[in-house]
Amino acid sequence: MKVYKSLRPLSNWFFVNKLSLSIDKTSYSIFWKSARIKHNYTIQLCDSDIKQVNCSKYLGVYVDSNLDWKDHIDYIYKKNLLNS
Known about the structure:
By secondary structure, this protein is of the alpha+beta class. Helices cover 35% and strands 21% of the residues. It contains two helices and five strands, in the order H-E-E-E-E-E-H. The strands form two sheets. The chain has a three-stranded mixed beta sheet. A two-stranded antiparallel ribbon has the order 4-5. The radius of gyration is 16 Å and the shape is flat.
């Protein structure tokens, strides 16, 4: 699989440069048009499993696997309710 070919050199780079990765803060998403499609992949980096998530925060914006704004809009709405 192409993912493993890309991640193996990355793992080696972390090791050689004496760097670590916070696996607890690392995740991946698979983007699809429909949420009905489910895939269970196991992706490892630095000999640790990376968790798959449906939604994650990236540069302050919540992005979900459907490229839908619902989670981000809900976050902003709740944030505005608390501040008013």
